[in-house]
Specification:
It is built from 10 helices and 8 strands. The chain is α+β, with helices and mostly antiparallel strands. The protein has one domain: Outer membrane efflux proteins (OEP) (Up-down Bundle).
């Protein structure tokens, strides 16, 4: 009996734990959101396909460097055999007395047999083809560019998801703070209604407070809806089912304060900049394309081997006229470009100009990335100062509201003072929430511009 009771308790405990997991499984941390997005974002899936396509393109070119073997077979029924026309030398070879004076000057001889067939195999092998070898290098570089493109897209997804995640956190924090204020105003309203019933306050004061409560509730509802819109955008970036509810972790102000106080420098390095590495890959591609244009002026040498097995017959490959014989040939083919009307030289100069343009783009991008990084540093410092001011301002507004509330109870403050204090508190709460959001945006911008956006994958 006792063992059955213990077993029942264990089952109930297990069900409770399972229920807890079920209810908590939709609460996502930043790391979970980022990992889910990298696995399910549809744009990233398309980029993975581009990498696979580039890999197969390289294999296609590599296959052209291997021996190309082709088989062939044919069977012909010569319904009308070809005829060969030649002078009638037979009549002319006869003795004059035996020659036919009316003989035709030309005679026709039927050529070939009724049937002929052949089976063969041909092998071609590139021995010296600089243009084709260079094309293989181009394909390899294209594959590397596709991989860099995936890195760039992943970093953009991390950037967008992190921004939305922290925006939702700060918006939901604003909602929770407004709920606190609404509770305070609602508490005061109930007290005012009781005082009104006892004839201690005017009805207009009760109505003004009730209007203020409705306005606050409406404002909270609008902010809450904004958070839901942000969640839908987050689900879109994550590749999450848009119809499935999602909850994210509440903001941890203690961890946030640690982050604000942490003034570790994020150093700028071009080696960490994926856009710059991507442009360098494109520069390598342009240089290889110029090589291709140069290699078009070089000879191409290839090996050729052919083996044929042929048969002829007047009957359908039987009887005395049925005859089969093999044939084969091996050789080298050399193609030497001599003159192309200067078109190849023009192509080389075009590629040279393209290289110069890409190098200029690299210089522009380097300056742009440096400028963006410096701006992000300044923006983060400003956001750090703002958040400290807004935190203190929110605490001050709470103190003012509490003091005003007490003074009102004591008859030292008016209803206008209460309403003004509540509005100031709400504004301070919203300003602090916006400061939280602005700081995290600046923090993420600096992570991205310094080339360390992937560090967010390991942050709490």
């Amino acid at each position: 009996m006792k063992s059955n009771f213990i077993k029942s308790v264990c089952i109930v405990f297990g069900i409770l734990i399972g229920s807890t997991n079920i209810f908590s499984q939709n609460v996502y941390s930043l790391q979970q959101c980022l990992e889910y997005a990298l696995d399910n974002n549809r744009s990233l899936k398309k980029t993975h396909y581009d990498i696979e396509k580039a890999a197969y393109a390289r294999k296609e070119i590599l296959g052209a460097l291997l021996p190309q073997i082709n088989g062939s077979a044919s069977l012909n029924d010569n319904l009308k055999k070809a005829k060969f026309i030649m002078p009638n030398f037979i009549n002319s070879m006869l003795p004059p007395a035996a020659q036919d004076p009316d003989a035709q000057k030309y005679m026709t001889i039927e050529m070939g047999t009724n049937y002929n067939a052949n089976v063969g195999v041909t092998l071609n092998q590139q021995i010296l083809n600089f243009s084709l070898f260079n094309t293989l290098s181009i394909a390899k570089t294209a594959e590397e560019i596709a991989e860099l493109g995936l890195e760039s897209n992943e970093e953009e997804v991390i950037y967008q998801v992190a921004n939305l995640f922290y925006s939702i956190q700060s918006t939901e924090y604003a909602v929770s703070q407004m709920e606190r204020s609404i509770e305070l105003v609602d508490k005061m309203l109930k007290m005012m209604e009781l005082n009104y019933e006892n004839g201690l306050v005017k009805k207009v004061d009760v109505d003004r407070l009730r209007v203020s409560l409705v306005n606050l509730t409406t404002q909270k509802s609008g902010i809450k809806n904004a958070a839901e819109v942000q969640k839908n955008l987050l689900k879109l970036q994550m590749g999450f089912n848009i119809n499935t509810p999602i909850e994210i972790q509440e903001i941890n102000l203690a961890l946030f304060e640690e982050k604000v106080k942490d003034k570790t420098e994020m150093l700028f390095s071009l080696d960490n900049q994926t856009p710059y590495r991507l442009l360098m890959g494109k520069l390598d591609m342009v240089k290889l394309q110029k090589k291709s244009a140069v290699y078009e002026n070089l000879p191409v040498l290839s090996l050729m081997f052919n083996y044929q097995y042929s048969g002829v017959s007047d009957e359908f490959f039987k009887g005395k006229t049925n005859y089969w014989y093999p044939s084969s040939v091996i050789g080298l083919n050399l193609r030497i470009p001599i003159f192309s009307g200067f078109s190849r030289n023009a192509k080389i100069w075009q590629n040279s100009i393209e290289i110069q343009k890409t190098e200029e783009d690299a210089g522009i991008l380097e300056q742009s990335l440096n400028m963006t990084y410096m701006n992000a540093r300044m923006k983060l410092n400003d956001a750090r100062n703002t958040i400290e001011l807004q935190r203190d301002n929110q605490s001050l507004a709470e103190d003012v509201f509490n003091i005003t509330e007490n003074n009102f109870v004591l008859g030292l403050s008016s209803m206008s003072d209460i309403l003004n204090a509540s509005q100031s508190l709400i504004q301070a709460q919203l300003s602090y929430a916006n400061a939280l959001s602005d700081y995290m945006k600046a923090y993420i911008d600096l992570k991205k511009t310094s080339g360390n956006i992937r560090d967010l994958m390991n942050e709490k």
